Amino acid sequence: MPHYLLSVVEPSFGDPPPPADLEKIMAQVDRFDREMREAGVWVFSGGLHPPATASTLRPKGEDVLVSDGPFIEGKEHLGGFSIIDVPDLDAALEWGRKAVAATTLPVEVRPFRW
Amino acid sequence: MIEELYRAEYGRAVAVLTRLLGDLDAAEEAVQDAFAAAVQRWPAAGVPPSPSGWIITTARNAAIDRLRREAKRTGKHVEAFLSQSPGGEEGPVHDERLRLIFTCCHPALSMTARVALTLRLLGGLTTPEIARVLLMSEPATAQRIVRAKQKIKAAHIPYRVPREADLPDRLGGVLAVVYLIFTEGHGADRADLCAEAIRLGRLLAELMPDEPEVLGLLALMLLTEARRPARFARDGSLVLLADQDRTLWDRSLIAEGHGLVRRCLRRDRPGPYQIQAAINAVHTDGPSSDWRQVVQLYDQLMALAPTPVVALHRAVAVAEVEGPSAGLALIEGLPLQQYHVFHAVRGDFLRRLGRPTEAAAAYAHAAALSPNEAERRFLTSRQ
Questions:
Q1: HEC profile for chain B?
Q2: What residues of chain B lie within 8 A of the CB of A113, using their CB?
Q3: CA of A34, closest CA in chain B: separation in Å?
């Protein structure tokens, strides 16, 4: 069956939600994760450390250049993702909706090539 | 003959082949092969007894031939290419075109892509024809269609009628595509677009006769279309409803529209398209409009779809019953500064209130924003 990447889009600036809200969101995300596993659609998922913890590698002739930080500094960044295995886009969008409800953030749904 | 058949049967043939092949491009290719064969053979051999059946059978055979050649090359079985029978689907047996409509109008596609795909796959319009509808260049239109088909394939947009729970929402999306094609045609006075939208509306009404909003949309389009012959004066300028020569209206379209509105009323499941159709039924009933009834219908519409445009139209009806100052009070503050009709309505209220300078300014504003030459001329003449 087709696989889809559900990407959670986090804002890069502004204050994070207050601790109480954050705790609630984390609980929702946990529940969402469990629900995917129980439904048998879960392939992989994970949350990411902030973009500042990233290292970027670029080709330079024969060499590879290492730099500190993300590839692009954007107003938003990838905060976490899930990979799901479902029959079609309608099913993927259904799980995407649940991801939005759990994280309270925008979610991009994109099909894998294989 | 073949051209007519193409317009009438292209959608059905593509839908059947898509079901068989599980791929829109392959389906279109096979159907085009079949029509090419018809052009070649029919003039000499005569038209077969069931032309549409012939097209589908020939397309199917052309597709299977193509798959056999492909299979020889890759060593796969033909069966591997044919789509798995999509078992597990519940509910009644649907016309294949219904699946196709829901695929073309999937909410994960942009509105432009939905319009383009619907016109192409169900309407059988060519890329140049679709480009004229979208007011886009042919290459840009072709690219839109290719990209949309790629997305359907890569993202696995399903080829099926949505389940009952999602149907109202998804059906709304389909109706919006058809109505957009119609309003584009109406706004720009393009009879071809209106005719295409009505053709799609009739198809939907045939496929989903139990959905009152489908009937409502068809009635709304028919009753609007019926008045087209009276909409413009001989010099091409716009004629207001109250001043229109009612003998020019298309009586048979009006009768058909009224019949549909009555069917909707019997079902008693009102929706925005049905109410708008009912409003148009009042306008086309008898020698003049019963504005009190129109206001009541707009009240109902406001309860279901409280948008600024509906509020504007309601104000026009209220002004007919209570006078222009009541109308003016209702529209001040509506967030419609960029909508030419708002300024035209405001100009009309101000003119009737004996405030000619302000009225002229409003008409000038409306004329500057109007996309339609006849309307611009009308609005300029009012200043």
A1: CHHHHHHHHHHHHHHHHHHHHCCHHHHHHHHHHHHHHHHHHHHHHCCCCCHHHHHHHHHHHHHHHHHHHHHHHHCCCHHHHCCCCCCCCCCCCCCHHHHHHHHHCCCCCCHHHHHHHHHHHHCCCCHHHHHHHHCCCHHHHHHHHHHHHHHHHHCCCCCCCCCHHHHHHHHHHHHHHHHHHHHHHHHCCCHHHHHHHHHHHHHHHHHCCCCHHHHHHHHHHHHHHCCHHHHECCCCCECCHHHCCHHHCCHHHHHHHHHHHHHHHHHCCCCHHHHHHHHHHHHCCCCCCCHHHHHHHHHHHHHHCCCHHHHHHHHHHHHHHHCHHHHHHHHCCCCCCCCHHHHHHHHHHHHHCCCHHHHHHHHHHHHHHCCCHHHHHHHHHHC
A2: 154
A3: 25
